[in-house]
Amino acid sequence: KGSKELTGSPPLLRPLHGKSEVEQWSDMYTVTSQISLTVRREDDGVPVVCEVDHPAVKDLQTKHYLDVMYKPQIRVSQILPASGPTREGDLLDLLCQVEGKPEPTDTTWFRVDDEMPAHVIVSGSNLHISSLNKSDNGTYRCEASNEVGKSFVDYMLYVYDPLTTLPPPTTTAIIPTSTADTTATTEPAVHGFTQLPNSAEELDYGDLSDSRAGEESVITVVDHAVIGGVVAVVVFAMLCLLIILGRYFARHKGTYFTHEAKGADDAADADTAIINAEGGQNNSEEKKEYFI
Fold first, then answer.
1. Rounded to an integer, what distance in angstroms lies between the CA atom of residue 140 and that of residue 153?
2. What gap in Å lies between CA 62 and CA 52, rounded to an integer?
3. Residue 203 predicted with pLDDT over 50
4. In the chain, N or C terminus with fewer CB closer than 10 Å?
5. Cα(284)–Cα(7) distance, rounded to whole angstroms?
6. How many whole angstroms separate alpha carbon 4 and alpha carbon 259?
7. How far from chain centre, in Å, is Cα 192?
């Protein structure tokens, strides 16, 4: 594609990727030149010019337009949905655009990994599904052919879950009003005041959702704080009880003496303590026996 110049005289004729022959007949010469080119489909219709340089003629040339045959070129476009992912319940419309030379004679749609669903409608180069569901997931192929060859393009379909819609708010939003201008809720906005909505339905639904989400998060934080406080109080009470019991047992711990040890506190040694103790030999009443 583009312009390439091939020049030369009969002895020096050097065509690109070609050959030349010179035949002499008396005083006349016959020059034959051949050229070989590798063409693509973009070269279809491009002219190839053969020009002769001779003193007797000026700008003698001839043209030949390339006629390139190529197999179909396919492109699949998603018409519906126009944007975003494909979800359950959506309408799917695919267009298979085919270009080739000669003109493609056969364009078909089929499912690669399974049979085509019964509710799928194929009309020429269009594939139509009225209501998508998860069973439609798979690979859909558009195939076209002509005399040169066959081509195809695959379309991967994945159906996502439908969007969940939240119910309208049941609580009435409290709208602060200004005492300086009592007509602010009914009159148009003037002098810097903004007209307030007449009902809760006129509020931005997104703002209400954000406020509810904030309230739920605050409640969750409060519950955790209350539980943590109760646990801390219980632990503190148990620690106090352990300390009180420890002090009580420490104060009532001592040495217990029997009556037999009374009087032995001031003894100098063990023998004296035994003698001075109650029940000792010195303090015991002596039994006397009298014989008649």
1. 9
2. 9
3. no
4. C
5. 158
6. 137
7. 44
